[in-house]
Amino acid sequence: MRFSIYRYNPEVDEQPYMQDYELPDAEIRDDMMLLEALDKLREQDPTLAFRSSCKEGVCGSDGMNVNGENHLSCITRMSSLRDPVVLKPLPGLPVIRDLIIDMELFYDHYRAVDPFLKATRPGQNVDLDHEFLQSPEEREKLDGSYECILCGCCATSCPSFWWNPDKFHGPAALLAARRFVVDSRDITTRERLETLDDPFKTFRCRNIQNCTASCPKGLNPSQAINELKSLMVEKQLD
User: Which of 44, 66, 101 represents a domain boundary (last residue)?
Assistant: First the structure.
């Protein structure tokens, strides 16, 4: 099988370029994942750079653009790909080297939504002998939000993020925001919604739904963003 892979080393390359590789069909198994194929190609060319860690679709480190769509290479079967396989870095963020991108802006947006539980006010005494309890129905509201692995596939497939990367929080951050807004234990729901009620942070989403289509965990960031918008409208009507 043939591969065409984006190459760029800023220390030696003036411009990015595509480099061709080939892996003998005899080395490709029916159950082989793309990441394993990349490991074999790196044996041919040790200078080829890409991220990987858990190899189980959990860490989210090996996101890349595969034949025009964002995927995790560790859970993308070679049998599902057409020949040649064209690999590029996730779009919309700076390239560090080859298939490795700088995700600091992505993480900045995630940090901006305060992705942690605020069950008490600063300085408030906490009764450490009692838990913050939820009913099964309240807990169920969190399903589909907390499973995000921060791979960046959603945000880097989003035109709204491409157009306003410094202002639009992006689908992963807003999915996390929704998770804490609807958490019955969090006491800052109104403050969270007021912070998010912004023409760029949240409402720059145009409901294109590329984020949902590209999520390797099957989550629905588009739906979560629409729910946040509805909650903001309800807040304004209170």
Answer: 101
Residues 97 and 125 in one domain: no
Helix (H/G/I), strand (E/B), else coil: 101: strand
Cβ-proximal residues to 35 (8 Å cutoff; 6+ apart), any chain = 52, 55, 62, 73, 74, 76
- Domain span at residue 23? 2-101
Count of structural domains, the chain: 2
Whether residue 124 has pLDDT greater than 80: no
Indicate if the pLDDT at residue 123 is higher than 90: no
Which pTM was predicted?
0.93
Residues 119, 200 within the same domain: yes
pLDDT band at 237 (very low <50, low <70, confident <90, very high): low
